Amino acid sequence: MNKIYLLIALGCILQGLFIKSEHENKRISAVILKGLAAFVFVTIGFIAYRRVNNAFNKVFFYGLAFGMIGDILLNLRYIFEKQSQKIFLAGILAFLIGHILYLAGLLPQARGAFLWPCILLGALAAGLLLAYIFKTMEVKKAFKIFGVFYLGAVFIMTAIAIGIAVVYPSRRSILYCIGAILFTASDVILIFNTFSGVSRFSRRVVNLSMYYIGQILIAVSLFF
User: Fold this and answer.
1) What whole-number distance in Å separates Cα of residue 161 and Cα of residue 176?
2) Angle subtended by helix axes 141-167 and 115-136, to nearest 10
């Protein structure tokens, strides 16, 4: 695991450098650094998949890979400004596919009667957040449509992860659960920072840090 710890440290350094470059409006270097940081958690997921070669880890590895694609696309929109909306939506689609893959990996583990309550609670939480966003923020129709599916998938995935960690506690389920919660929280912060009309660098730092730690924890959970 020493190599994994070194990779985690490298990834965190790259993510920190990316945040700095983005804040300094160095758009090309920001995209490169963000892609490299994302490649680190994909590499950790790949190593875990090769060590524990099963269908679950394969699905989660692909989910991490789509997360990397989403990462790169979300920052490419700052370089290709004329196509920024389309690129942003493509990035959200990549993350949505990643969450669907995470869901596909979680569902076989969600044995027992808690599955449907978790799905309902996740859908309810997403619905309440969406209702608040649509009522208080100006959001274009395309973003609303994507938002419904994306937040629905994110909150349901996280609710199921929490259910698994509670009913079947293990290092894997707990690490994944914490990672999923951080991922979801980072998305909520991103939404408020992007669409509330008040964008703050401090929120951006928290959003990006929570997201990256979340993806790292999801990748590390695959070793157990």
Assistant:
1) 7
2) 150
First and final CA of the chain: distance in angstroms?
Answer: 12
Taking the model in full, what pTM does it have? 0.92
| Unique residue bearing structure tokens 């696309």 | 73
159-164 LR contacts (CB < 8 Å, sep 24+): 159/118, 159/119, 159/121, 159/122, 159/125, 160/103, 160/106, 160/107, 160/110, 160/115, 160/118, 160/119, 160/122, 161/106, 162/118, 163/110, 163/114, 163/115, 163/117, 163/118, 164/106, 164/109, 164/110
Task: Write out pLDDT tens, residues 55-110.
Answer: 788 999 999 999 999 999 999 988 898 888 889 889 999 999 999 999 999 988 88
45 Cβ contact partners less than 8 Å away, ≥ 6 residues apart = 57, 60, 61, 64, 65, 218, 219, 222
Rounded CA-CA distance 7/44 in Å is: 7
- CA dist 30 → 14, 18, 20, 101, 145 (Å): 10, 5, 8, 27, 28
d(CA 10, CA 216): 12
Q: Is 87 exposed, middle or buried (0-12, 13-18, 19+ CB in 10 A)?
A: buried
Q: Are 183 and 214 in contact (CB under 8 A)?
A: yes
Other Cβ atoms within 10 Å of 125 Cβ, number = 18
Q: What is the DSSP secondary structure assignment for residue 222, as one 8-state letter? A: T
